[in-house]
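Exercise: predict the fold of this chain.
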Amino acid sequence: MTDTATATARPRLAAPASAVAATTGAAFDEAIALTRRLKLPHIRRAMAEVIPTAKAQRWELAEVVQALLAEEAAGRDVANLRTRRTRAAFPTESLGGAGLWNRFAVRAG
């Protein structure tokens, strides 16, 4: 049996000032502009969280790039699945709603 009193949420530690500064400034704004130009919306959304974390934890550059690219790949997978399901135009309402999607979905394996 687990004790729920000890499992309470701990307060988040404040990010160092240098990490907060990483989400502002000319370099960050240029990176946001480049992600817009290259059409990388999932990286753009993840940058505000990943970059301060990476600075605070002193990640290697390769780890930062890997984390951002993983976010983009995962976001694109979700968007592609949503698009395919929409374009297929299956009669989901007459089949009892979205619950059947879980039963018949093809799982990547």
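Check your answer against the key: The mean pLDDT is 78.
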